[in-house]
Amino acid sequence: MPTDTLFQALPGAAPVATVQIFFNDRPLKVAAGTNLAAALMLHGVQHFRSSPVSGVPRAPYCMMGVCFECLVEIDGVPSRQSCLATVRDGMRVKAQDGLRSFDSGEVHVEGEVRHEN
Amino acid sequence: MTNSSVTADVIVVGGGLVGAAVAYGLARQKARVLVLDEGDQAFRASRGNFGLVWVQGKGYGMAPYARWTVGSARAWPQLAEDLLQATGVDVQLRQPGGYAFCFTADELTARRDRLQSIQNDLGGSNEDYPFEILDAADLRARVPHIGPEVVGGSFTPMDGHVNPLKLLRALHTALGQRGVSVVPESPVQQIARAGDVFTLKAGAKYYQAPRIVLAAGLGNRELAEQVGLYAPVQPNRGQVLIGERAGHFLDFPTLNVRQTDEGTIQLGDSMEEVGFDDTTTTDVLAAIAKRGVRSFPVLAGLKLVRAWGALRVMSPDGFPIYQQSEAFPGAFITTCHSGVTLAAHHALTIAPWVLGGRKPAEIGAFEGARFLNPNYKFNHAH
Amino acid sequence: MKTETVDVAVIGAGPAGLSAAATAARCGANVVLLDEQAGPGGQIYRAITDTDALRLQILGPDYAVGQKLADDLITSGARHEKGVSVWEVTRDRSVHGLKDGQVRSWQARHVVLATGAMERPFPIPGWTLPGVMTAGAAQILLKSAQVVPAGGLVLAGCGPLLYLLAWQYLRAGVKISAIVDTTDRADHRRALAHAGGALRGWRMLAKGLKLMLAIRRAGVPFYTGASELAIEGSGQAEALKFNVGKHTHRISTSLVLLHQGVVPNTQFSWSLRAGHQWDDAQLCWSPKTDEWGALDVPGVLVAGDGGGIGGALAAASQGRLAGLSVACELGLIDEKERDRLAAPVRGDLAEQLAVRPFLDALYRPKMRVPHDDVVVCRCEEVTAGQIRSHVALGCSGPNQAKSFGRCGMGPCQGRLCGLTVTEVIAQARGVPPEEVGYYRIRPPIKPITLGELAGEAT
Q1: Rounded (10°) angle between helices C312-329 and C61-76
Q2: CATH label, A18-95, candidates 3.40.50.1220, 3.40.50.1000, 3.30.420.40, 3.10.20.440
């Protein structure tokens, strides 16, 4: 549940049609055709992924596809840059926590790996 | 001498995996060592290799090399332990055995013949050179997710892998701890000798020592001539793909795919003769990718984050060149394209030899002079 | 997989790319314009074809200029392929991209790289926390999604974009907690040396002054000469700490927007092994080009901020010059015609670049070489101290540092750490950045999967 979100819709903006997407199985109503990362942040999402190095939470930084902090899993495909994606009705988005698993042939995510430099 | 000169017991030319391992071995023997290294943009085969500590298949038709490789793999745990104790860096040596996959019956037969021939050369028994040839079903039972196009493969328990960059860093850290100076941005241009002392010119500086080791990779070709040695090495390009970090996927190293200790999945490689060109090419990378997907179809979704090309230091027959110069005693050359696998021998066997110790049994087969012998028959580098 | 042959492939649909593509197409060239976004405009004119009256009013007149460029492209005959993530451009001008999971490739006689700029890294403590973004990112949220901050926010750093965004937020009714500016008196003095250029660009300066006045009048707390910026928080941003003179300030905030200028996005030019130089005025690497934007790689040109920061209007001019040059190379116009058409564009370009030295001197970025415990490589979490320890071990440049510590090995491929690493090593070795060099950049410039790449195999 978004309590104090960092972002809001531009005051005075005209209402737009909405679609439903899911973030970590939570349904969200978002503006049709909008940018995915923007929609998530508007709904108070601050944890997009955890760093595969130390597990700390990360969120979008550049919004233009160069920082790769906004990586999420979209419809089962991991490591997608959400700042370059457009929402679609029914889209299922998951935070990218831990590592992609290839072990079972399906896509699910394991626990984090820590490594020291 | 007009400029400042530095004295050491041994100067090692080249701070890559070969040079650093030899220097480390020398320092372990309490020699005073100086390492002269190139700059940041140098070709640096050390940075581009696959990280395998690999035995199977090597030394086909050249028993000394097979023996040399087996010996180094056996000595590797000692090197890893020494480095861990000395520097705290765990180079992540794992030697669970390794696989090579075949996609046709002919390939599998050729593989069996090759390994059997090497085993025969080394005594003929499974103790001397253990290996197994597996069909698709056996392989699938041992390595999950093998693709349906794989018809079989070979396994030896002697194979393993290591983190080559951690190895390089561990070696350099150990050198620092032992007071070995590694001088960067210092490519050696000239080597002269007066009496018992070699003088090396690098840039505007001169360095002197009674013994030198040429471990300058592709640069060895030119430097060798200055001390009466022959090392006709050529660049041989290998391209490698790196995928994102993934959860645990592959326990064993394989010839073309391995999962690193950091979780990234690494795919290789190629052998191309393209001169001094270490750029990557789409066609070769695509071929590596295709082989990877044929080996493990489940990896089709793996995100690739990096690719590189690196130049192997390749002798005409693909085997190392180790030699002490007769015309310039005290000048040694060490060159190979398996700087990871042979690192243990370089540190623990070659280094003592450089200091005047026992000449390793197999060394005679690796003299560069062999290429000057018109009767020396060999297959062009594998 | 089929390869399409074209006369010109333009990479990037910002002002430079739009004008290069349109110019070449109008001369009769077969042009394809490739961009990874869903619509034209790059970052500066992002979402320009999707926008509305409210946003145009808030964002101001400079943004609306992009509409004309977008229209011009459509009528020029150039083909705009959207949603294409270009992952490789080779020296023989083969361009490889990915669209909807399918690999596409083009063989071009000429390539124009118009990949623009990106925000300069801002390595301060806490810069990797959620709740910290670049000012550019915040502006993109506004432009493309009509999203603005909900409550107090702090803008920190220096440079025109910082003040422009503040002004746009005020117009949108967004409350700004503070602006923390690192510009100090020394910067003013240095900038005065370039006052002549500043006067030539007086229109831009006048705009800037108007902005500043509006911000002051709105009563936004404004700190100047700030140093030692640090973001505090565990798990997310909670406050910004900084010094002004002898005083330490701490402002509670959950959202910090950082900006200290933009730098050329040079991934493609480096991957082509084009020659680059260190620009001491702009404190970044830029590719070496001739007066048409040609690199030392045959058939490849750069236009726009990717060749050196000049701003959106200069980018459009440079795009025109590149387009004319390519049209001439293709034999569609002769040299006389090319030069005749180029002459007024060069005049415009000189005007547009006149103010640059003044801006570069005034808004010199300060937070570039951080303390030991600050993360430099965000992807691999490598700190400045770790990099310095690798220099002590003998690493003389970024590539060795990369192999010792993994900095630059993550998905961003050094975009957010490269400049910092060059300068950290330069400072540690006591040599100029030019001598230290930059990361070796290789494809894939954007991620591609194993299966997608395998699809390229014959």
Answers
A1: 20
A2: 3.10.20.440
- The complex's ipTM works out to 0.94
Task: Look at residue B196 and tell me whether its pLDDT is greater than 80.
Answer: yes
Cα angle: B86, vertex B91, B95; to 5 degrees: 120
Average pLDDT of the residues of chain B: 93
Q: Alpha carbon of C126 to those of A85, C179, C265: distances in Å?
A: 27, 18, 24
- Strands C102-113 and C3-11, bridge-based pairing: parallel
Q: Which two tokens stand for residue B190?
A: 């000239």
Q: Model's pTM, two decimal places?
A: 0.91
Spell out the domains of chain C, with CATH numbers in brackets: 3-118+263-333 (3.50.50.60), 121-260 (3.50.50.60), 370-458 (1.10.10.1100)
In contact, C277 and C285? CB cutoff 8 Å: yes
Chain B residues within 8 A of C411 when measuring between CB atoms: 244, 303, 305
Q: Are C237 and C231 in contact (CB under 8 A)?
A: yes
Domain boundaries, chain A: 18-95
- Decide if B303 and A115 are in contact by the 8 Å CB cutoff: no
Q: pLDDT tens, B301-318?
A: 999 988 989 999 999 999
Question: Roughly what angle, to the nearest 10 degrees, separates helices C384-392 and C398-405?
Answer: 110
Beta strand pairing call for B160-161 and B52-53? antiparallel
pLDDT at C125: 98
- How many Cβ atoms sit within 10 Å of the Cβ of residue B371? 16
Lowest model confidence (mean pLDDT) among A28-32, B41-45, B242-246, C440-444:
B41-45
Q: Please state, in angstroms and as integers, the Cα–Cα distance from residue B13 to each residue in B23, B35, B184, B185, B321, following that order.
A: 10, 6, 11, 12, 15
Q: Does the pLDDT of residue B167 top 70, yes or no?
A: yes
Residue C444: is the preceding peptide bond cis (ω within 30°)?
A: yes
Residues 6+ away with beta carbon under 8 Å from B318: B337, B380, B381, B382
With beta carbons under 8 A apart, name residues in chain A contacting C134.
61-63
Which among A16, A37, A14, A15 is positioned nearest to A85, based on CA atoms? A37
Pull the structure tokens for residue B139. Answer: 């392989």
Chain B: residue whose CA lies nearest to A102: B249
Residues 6+ apart with CB under 8 A from C333: C27, C324, C327, C341
How many Å apart are CA B129 and CA C216, to the nearest integer?
A: 81
How does pLDDT run across B93-123, given as a tens digit for each residue? 999 999 999 999 999 999 999 999 999 999 9
Q: Is the pLDDT of residue B89 over 50?
A: yes
Mean pLDDT, range C232-240, rounded to an integer: 96
- Secondary element (H or E) of residue B155: strand B152-156
Q: Would you call C381 and A39 a contact, using CB atoms and an 8 Å cutoff?
A: no
Does the beta-carbon distance from A64 to C38 stay under 8 Å? no
Closest alpha carbon to B253 in B17, B54, B48, B45: B54
The yes-or-no verdict on residue C290 having pLDDT over 70 is yes
Phi/psi at C86 (5° precision): -80, 120
Q: What does the alpha-carbon distance between residue B41 and residue B48 come to, in Å, rounded to a whole number?
A: 13
Domains and CATH numbers, chain B: 5-50+165-232+317-372 (3.50.50.60), 98-157 (no CATH), 234-314 (3.30.9.10)
Chain A residues in contact with C148 (beta carbon < 8 A): 7-11
pLDDT, position B273 = 92
